[in-house]
Design brief:
CATH superfamily: P-loop containing nucleotide triphosphate hydrolases
Largest sheet: 7 strands, mixed
Order of helices and strands: HHEHEHEEEHEHE
Structural class: alpha/beta
Distance between the termini: 35 Å
CATH topology: Rossmann fold
CATH class: Alpha Beta
Number of domains: 1
Number of helices: 6
Radius of gyration: 14 Å
Strand content: 15-25%
Number of strands: 7
Strand order of the largest sheet: 1-7-6-2-5-3-4
Protein backbone atom coordinates (compact mmCIF):
# COMPACT_ATOMS: atom_id res chain seq x y z
CA UNK A 1 0.00 0.00 0.00
CA UNK A 2 1.62 3.20 -1.23
CA UNK A 3 0.70 6.02 1.15
CA UNK A 4 0.94 9.57 -0.11
CA UNK A 5 -0.92 12.66 0.96
CA UNK A 6 -2.51 15.30 -1.28
CA UNK A 7 -2.20 18.92 -0.20
CA UNK A 8 -5.15 19.16 2.18
CA UNK A 9 -5.46 20.90 5.57
CA UNK A 10 -5.43 17.58 7.47
CA UNK A 11 -2.38 16.38 5.52
CA UNK A 12 -0.50 19.53 6.50
CA UNK A 13 -1.00 18.56 10.16
CA UNK A 14 0.00 14.93 9.63
CA UNK A 15 2.95 14.92 12.04
CA UNK A 16 0.91 16.65 14.73
CA UNK A 17 -1.94 14.13 14.33
CA UNK A 18 0.44 11.15 14.34
CA UNK A 19 2.19 12.44 17.45
CA UNK A 20 -1.17 12.89 19.20
CA UNK A 21 -2.10 9.30 18.27
CA UNK A 22 1.23 7.99 19.52
CA UNK A 23 0.74 9.63 22.90
CA UNK A 24 -3.02 9.12 23.36
CA UNK A 25 -5.27 6.17 22.63
CA UNK A 26 -8.32 8.36 21.99
CA UNK A 27 -8.14 11.35 19.67
CA UNK A 28 -10.81 13.82 18.57
CA UNK A 29 -10.12 15.51 15.22
CA UNK A 30 -12.32 18.48 14.33
CA UNK A 31 -11.94 20.10 10.93
CA UNK A 32 -13.99 21.83 8.31
CA UNK A 33 -15.83 19.90 5.63
CA UNK A 34 -13.42 19.27 2.76
CA UNK A 35 -10.31 19.36 4.96
CA UNK A 36 -9.45 15.73 4.19
CA UNK A 37 -10.37 14.08 7.50
CA UNK A 38 -12.35 11.25 5.91
CA UNK A 39 -9.73 10.20 3.36
CA UNK A 40 -6.44 11.09 5.05
CA UNK A 41 -6.97 9.96 8.67
CA UNK A 42 -7.27 6.27 7.67
CA UNK A 43 -3.95 6.50 5.81
CA UNK A 44 -2.33 8.10 8.85
CA UNK A 45 -3.74 5.27 10.95
CA UNK A 46 -2.14 2.70 8.63
CA UNK A 47 1.15 4.57 8.89
CA UNK A 48 1.00 4.52 12.70
CA UNK A 49 -0.05 0.85 12.85
CA UNK A 50 2.95 -0.08 10.67
CA UNK A 51 5.23 1.98 12.91
CA UNK A 52 3.90 0.15 15.99
CA UNK A 53 4.16 -3.26 14.33
CA UNK A 54 0.41 -3.86 14.49
CA UNK A 55 -1.08 -6.34 12.02
CA UNK A 56 -4.80 -5.68 12.48
CA UNK A 57 -7.23 -3.61 10.49
CA UNK A 58 -8.15 0.03 10.58
CA UNK A 59 -11.94 0.27 10.85
CA UNK A 60 -13.59 3.44 9.57
CA UNK A 61 -17.28 4.09 10.06
CA UNK A 62 -19.45 6.26 7.87
CA UNK A 63 -23.07 7.18 8.63
CA UNK A 64 -24.28 6.24 5.12
CA UNK A 65 -23.72 3.34 2.73
CA UNK A 66 -22.86 5.56 -0.22
CA UNK A 67 -20.18 7.33 1.80
CA UNK A 68 -18.63 4.02 2.91
CA UNK A 69 -18.34 2.75 -0.66
CA UNK A 70 -17.27 5.99 -2.35
CA UNK A 71 -14.69 6.93 0.30
CA UNK A 72 -13.15 3.45 0.15
CA UNK A 73 -12.77 3.78 -3.62
CA UNK A 74 -11.18 7.21 -3.23
CA UNK A 75 -8.65 5.96 -0.66
CA UNK A 76 -7.88 2.88 -2.78
CA UNK A 77 -7.25 5.16 -5.79
CA UNK A 78 -4.99 7.46 -3.76
CA UNK A 79 -3.02 4.45 -2.49
CA UNK A 80 -2.94 2.85 -5.94
CA UNK A 81 -4.48 -0.42 -4.76
CA UNK A 82 -7.37 -2.51 -6.01
CA UNK A 83 -10.60 -2.09 -4.06
CA UNK A 84 -11.26 -5.17 -1.96
CA UNK A 85 -7.58 -5.86 -1.41
CA UNK A 86 -5.78 -3.56 1.07
CA UNK A 87 -8.76 -1.18 1.13
CA UNK A 88 -12.30 -2.53 1.33
CA UNK A 89 -15.81 -1.76 2.42
CA UNK A 90 -18.89 -3.35 3.93
CA UNK A 91 -22.50 -2.25 4.02
CA UNK A 92 -25.63 -4.24 4.75
CA UNK A 93 -25.75 -7.35 2.51
CA UNK A 94 -22.46 -6.57 0.70
CA UNK A 95 -18.82 -6.91 1.71
CA UNK A 96 -15.88 -6.13 -0.57
CA UNK A 97 -12.92 -7.10 1.65
CA UNK A 98 -10.31 -9.84 1.75
CA UNK A 99 -7.80 -11.25 4.22
CA UNK A 100 -5.39 -8.60 2.87
CA UNK A 101 -7.71 -5.71 3.79
CA UNK A 102 -5.96 -3.25 6.09
CA UNK A 103 -8.51 -0.42 5.91
CA UNK A 104 -12.19 -1.31 6.08
CA UNK A 105 -14.83 1.35 5.53
CA UNK A 106 -18.30 0.46 6.82
CA UNK A 107 -21.50 1.95 8.08
CA UNK A 108 -21.70 2.51 11.81
CA UNK A 109 -24.43 -0.15 11.85
CA UNK A 110 -21.98 -2.76 10.54
CA UNK A 111 -19.45 -2.03 13.30
CA UNK A 112 -22.25 -2.15 15.84
CA UNK A 113 -23.33 -5.56 14.49
CA UNK A 114 -19.73 -6.79 14.69
CA UNK A 115 -19.75 -6.14 18.45
CA UNK A 116 -22.29 -8.96 18.76
CA UNK A 117 -19.89 -11.57 17.36
CA UNK A 118 -16.64 -10.11 18.71
CA UNK A 119 -17.17 -8.02 21.83
CA UNK A 120 -13.50 -6.96 21.86
CA UNK A 121 -13.41 -6.04 18.13
CA UNK A 122 -10.05 -7.86 17.97
CA UNK A 123 -9.62 -7.52 14.21
CA UNK A 124 -9.13 -3.75 14.62
CA UNK A 125 -6.06 -1.90 15.91
CA UNK A 126 -7.53 1.55 15.25
CA UNK A 127 -11.20 2.49 14.87
CA UNK A 128 -12.19 5.80 13.27
CA UNK A 129 -15.70 7.11 13.89
CA UNK A 130 -16.18 9.65 11.11
CA UNK A 131 -18.93 12.29 10.95
CA UNK A 132 -19.54 11.94 14.70
CA UNK A 133 -21.46 15.24 14.65
CA UNK A 134 -24.29 13.50 12.79
CA UNK A 135 -25.39 12.02 16.15
CA UNK A 136 -27.41 8.90 15.48
CA UNK A 137 -28.32 6.18 17.96
CA UNK A 138 -25.69 3.95 16.33
CA UNK A 139 -22.94 6.55 16.70
CA UNK A 140 -23.93 7.37 20.27
CA UNK A 141 -23.99 3.69 21.21
CA UNK A 142 -20.63 3.04 19.50
CA UNK A 143 -18.99 5.97 21.29
CA UNK A 144 -20.17 4.64 24.65
CA UNK A 145 -19.13 1.10 23.75
CA UNK A 146 -15.67 2.17 22.57
CA UNK A 147 -15.18 4.26 25.71
CA UNK A 148 -15.51 1.06 27.74
CA UNK A 149 -13.56 -1.06 25.25
CA UNK A 150 -10.41 1.10 25.34
CA UNK A 151 -10.27 0.47 29.09
CA UNK A 152 -10.13 -3.30 28.45
CA UNK A 153 -8.02 -3.28 25.28
CA UNK A 154 -4.80 -1.38 25.92
CA UNK A 155 -3.72 -1.88 22.29
CA UNK A 156 -6.79 -0.21 20.75
CA UNK A 157 -6.82 3.37 19.51
CA UNK A 158 -9.96 5.35 18.66
CA UNK A 159 -10.21 8.44 16.47
CA UNK A 160 -13.40 10.49 16.52
CA UNK A 161 -13.68 12.79 13.53
CA UNK A 162 -16.18 15.57 13.03
CA UNK A 163 -16.83 18.79 11.17
CA UNK A 164 -18.34 20.32 14.30
CA UNK A 165 -18.09 18.91 17.78
CA UNK A 166 -17.72 20.22 21.27
CA UNK A 167 -14.41 18.53 22.10
CA UNK A 168 -14.26 20.07 25.57
Amino acid sequence: MNISYPDLPVSRRREEILEALRSSRVLVVVGETGSGKTTQLPKMAVELARELGQEGRIGCTQPRRLAATSVSRRVADECKVEIGKEVGWQVRFTEVCSKETKVKFMTDGILLAETQGDRELRQYDIIIIDEAHERSLNIDFLLGYLKQLVKRRKDLRVVISSATLDAG
